[in-house]
Amino acid sequence: MENIDAAGGREWFERYLDAFNNNDFNGFSAFYAPDVEFYGQAANLKGPAEIVKFYRMVMERLDEHIELKTFVGSKTHVAVEIVTTLDFRKDWPDFAPGPMKAGDRRQTVNFIFYDLNAEGLFTRIRSSRYCVIRER
Amino acid sequence: MMSPEERFADYIDTFNNRNYEKLITFYSPDIKLMNGTGRELIGRDAIVDCYTKVNERASRKIAICACVSDGQTLAAELKSTFTAMQDAPDFPSGPMAKGDQLYINSFVFYDIADGLYVKIRAAIFERRWMRAEDRPE
Questions:
Q1: Distance from CA of B112 to the nearest CA of A (A)
Q2: What residue ranges define each of the domains in chain A, with the CATH number in brackets?
């Protein structure tokens, strides 16, 4: 019987999202390969330390919550549809998609593709925006 | 019986060969397609009409970069290459002059029911232009 909690499975991925949603930087970065490449809509980053540094900066300014809508995975690729909700706690005038103020909420639907290595770690994460639910 | 991934490869071949008669057999009659430009197409005829018009002005070849499916949903990374066969100032992704090429990497989800695609949603990850005047001879 297939181990559904193995890398590339939904439960395994949900553990990654739980760590991310709870600002568990050690927890979510444990899913990254040392040479992971991250191509987000706000930044392109390389390596777990750079990604964690970026999200520490982000989480100081806003609360980010990710809701998993669609999941398809294998041992080599994971593809997800997520709803990303950003609740801004501080003004962010140079936020990449547009200036935001404290109290703003931005919601988007995004498609994220993850490449996995033989150890079940993410080597590449790429995000594209499907649609905007709420601008601010 | 073909796997969802094999069937998808057949679908993309059919698309690349502009075999519209076969292409519609992959779609549910009430297919909904939201393409990377945000345009929604409903029904087989709407999809064929749209791509017939696109293909009159630009050749489009799609390559599958990655594909994964659980049988109910298929996710694919596609690389599309459009080459303008004539000037197309109102091309959906932006004006094209004859010979211009547009490369689009997109992430696409296909919802599957009874072996047919019922909903297709695409988001563009990367868009890159190669203008005819900049292409090496």
A1: 13
A2: 10-134 (3.10.450.50)
